Amino acid sequence: VQLQASGGGLVQPGGSLTLSCTAAGTRLGYYAVAWFRQVPGWEREGLSCITASGESHYYPDSRKGRFTISRDNAKNTIYLQMKSLNYDDAAVYYCATDLRGETCSDYDGLYRYWGQGTLVTVSS
Question: Which tens digits make up the pLDDT trace of 24-64?
């Protein structure tokens, strides 16, 4: 399974970005997919996950509203919309799956397959 995360870049504080996660040769529509992020020197942090049936989870729950996860099975893509970005959101963002349909978790050890990461930089 080769996941590919994209959409990162430079954004000003208060700005928005939408990240995308695709997979060549794998129908993501059958599986739960999660988003994580990592700042160098820090542990990987779970952000959100969406099940195959479209149920979304946010870690913690309070992240909902500023972050929105969604999927477009026709495009074989999982999205993470982020708004009101601040300096603390700067990180490398990863998508991940364990090829399970309805299992979501913010525990990174659950996921076997990871994208290469996309860098989000927040700067004025």
Answer: 899 999 999 999 999 999 999 999 999 999 999 999 999 99
**Beta strand pairing call for 9-11 and 118-122:** parallel
In 3D, which of 46, 49, 21 has the Cα closest to residue 36? 46
CA distance 108 to 114: 10
Name the residue among 123, 112, 117, 24 with its Cα closest to residue 75: 24
Task: Give backbone dihedrals phi and psi of 38, rounded to 5 degrees, phi first.
Answer: -150, 130
Phi, psi at 9, each rounded to 5°: 165, -165
Other beta carbons within 10 angstroms of residue 88's beta carbon come to 8
If one counts every other C-beta atom within 10 angstroms of the C-beta of residue 55, the result is: 11
- 4: which 2 tokens? 């590919």
